[in-house]
Amino acid sequence: MDVNEFTLEQLREDLAGLSPEEHGFTYLDVERRPQHHGRLSGWILSVKDLTDVAGMPTSLGHVERTYMAEETDPFVQELIDAGALIIGKSATPELGLRVDTEPVGLPHPDNPLYPGHTPGGSSGGAAVQVARGLLRAAHASDGGGSIRVPAAACGVVGFKPSGEDLSVPGFITRSVADAATLHGLQPRTPRARIGVLTAPLFAEVEVAPHMVRAVNEAAARLEGAGFETVAISPYPQAAATFEAFQHIFTHRLADLDFAEGYAGWIRAQGRRVTDLEHSLARWHAIVLPGVLTKFWQVDAILTPTLAFDPPRRGHFLALDHQENFDEQTRWSPWGSLFNVAKLPAISVPWPVPHHPPVGVHLGGITLDDASLLGLAHVLHP
Which residues form the signal peptide (predicted)? Predict the structure, then answer.
């Protein structure tokens, strides 16, 4: 695929007649021009509406939180310096707190594969733009599955790199190769033992048969490519990991000065986390990669990305806050493991007969980012 297939002229044509629900932008400026020339020249990207771009509004997923950004986020500035053109902002839920994309007071993007259903979140606007073919790639971020969930829900690729925090920036793309290019990585195919896990880790939920089938078919492709695969089961400390995730995730929202509804509930949860609980959660995250390596004795694990198909828009927000949180976990009961452990993970689309593609998820245990991308390329060449 040539980057020149995605031009401003083509984007203007493709946007004609699309509503904000269909295109997923909260702000759009197709008159902008690249500021620099470099390795990403020709790439046209949107930026998630939690992240600042100087001269563009940032809504943080709530119309009353909107402000005009005066400086550009360093990760995004690196893209601009490398020649990428930033033409707008993509929709996200308030503060990126949920795995749907229903910002307060702003349009709610629709899923291109499942009309009337959520595109997932919190990088849902980005996934919609890539899935509709408006953009070749879109900036995103992942603090609990927020790149991989919408990628799976919309049938595209979502790579969460390793990092130093629960949340890391990344991209939703049309291919594994594009993810590697944007991160400046050269994928390499590793020698690896792959654990296959279809049982949910962090919630009691029945995994849809077509999700299990996709994982089994993906495992067969890996075996055919010479990789050893082995069935694995949930590790004994999974409940402690999810508690650590909740403590780290909510604690950082404890000092919000303006919070109501679901955001207010998350803030309240964070204020209940003691300093000791937060310290223990962070320690759990530090030792977790070693725990996983010792228990599973594999280099990567293969799971579904989602337990079932995307629900209808409004599904999560119709629930009370605790049930909303629990239902989000049931939908994606594997992804946050790799946020806590700070390990790389990727969702790639897998074809299912008479059904939109579904996401299969590879998470690195001993593999670095480049090796995980090389492994993912076997599944999505």
Answer: none
